[in-house]
Model the fold of this input.
Amino acid sequence: MQMRATVPITVSGLKSACSQCNLVELCLPFGLSNRELNRLDELVGARRKIKRQHNLYHAGDPFEAIYAIRAGSFKTDVLLEDGREQVTGFQMTGEILGLDGISTEIHSCNAVALEDSEVCVIPYDKLEQMSHEVEGLQLQFHKVMSREIVRDHGVMMLLGSMRAEERLAAFLLNMSQRFTARGFSAQEFNLRMTREEIGSYLGLKLETVSRAFSRFQDEGLIAVQQKHVRLLEPARLKSLIQHQPGAR
Amino acid sequence: MQMRATVPITVSGLKSACSQCNLVELCLPFGLSNRELNRLDELVGARRKIKRQHNLYHAGDPFEAIYAIRAGSFKTDVLLEDGREQVTGFQMTGEILGLDGISTEIHSCNAVALEDSEVCVIPYDKLEQMSHEVEGLQLQFHKVMSREIVRDHGVMMLLGSMRAEERLAAFLLNMSQRFTARGFSAQEFNLRMTREEIGSYLGLKLETVSRAFSRFQDEGLIAVQQKHVRLLEPARLKSLIQHQPGAR
DNA sequence: TTTTTTGGTTGACGTGGGTCAACGGGTGTG
DNA sequence: CACACCCGTTGACCCACGTCAACCAAAAAA
Done:
């Protein structure tokens, strides 16, 4: 059973301070002046801790805030009545969650922590208000939303016209690139999600994901052990994605 | 060969007037007060006509404006180096094009007219500026972007976890619903796109789309002739989407 | 520690949809 | 008005991925 409190016990009283945060260049405040950054500190409310496997929000919840990931990682998914799940994305530190709720003021997907995590709560009404005042904030927020749209188009490309190995290669390279942006190794990292979650995201069954991992390993492209992945030949992985013979 | 002029000959000198437009409740100005609506008239620049098969913009073009469709319809697509195309959406009157360009200030997809069409050009810098001033405009714009994100998640669901017939059923019901919103018949309409474009959007080959159309017709769910579609049993179409046996 | 559960791998087999090919009707063009 | 091309349909065949099942390792619980 998961907690569903709107004001969960896990809320920390600490105010976040964007101006002090080392995630600025990955997060909403990117590109703001110091003066603007100080104003942002007013905007960002309390932090909130979310335990592994617990929801930050559920589909159907009223929309009140967006969230910036301070530590940890999440998945977002949508469910069909018959129980089918589609993972729509994996989010890492500095990325923004909850944008799906703006349009109808009700969240349209679930956000679930893949590990014990912490987010900064950004009340949406305050964000709206401050966007009117702070020059760069509005532009930055628009860019965050637009980036999400572009990212989604990339996933559609992947789901609509790539074969299994291409999808996994694209996924691994994307993860690598995002770890790099956070100062981690581009070649070696620990995935936070299961084969089944990867499969759901890539439109494949978990067995197919597992087999593709094994085949990559057999061909010397990567070294995998459970969630630990090492990219041995990223260039060859990259070339897998384009000019695939017999592409869909 | 397609024209690629940034200021094409097809630009009309006419200023658009949102306050006079019968598409308000489908378009960006939805929910604005009359006073706000009048301010919007300043914002919206010239109209621009796009001939069938011609691009409103190309991937790689610098981003300068977003576009509201005044008449006609479009598809957006992304291309892979090897020529594979993924249609990321079909857009109808009142819908907004170009949001993909905000994040990098370069368009990341192509927007192609499916028929002779006309758009209202909304210069982005002006929109940014006016969003600071006009109360409801910012919120409305955010909702438009958020709706796009939610829509994209729906497409991912479709591509990632539905079988061919479910995808086509979902597509037809979505078209029906959007025609209805524009005052057209929910049961009977003309598609503007080819089987190949539908296939690309749904992650299927054109032959599969054609076969699914035929099977629906055989089962008395619809009547199709070329691009003309009549939904005979929308309820049964709807039930096709959920609780499908042996779903992916 | 031992036990249980969950997650990952691998094999054998089946099938939905892709591929290739032929054909016919519409539609836009010269 | 006639030609050409594009679009849609249908059939035969094939293969990538799904399904089902067994098994093992790792992690969590007891």
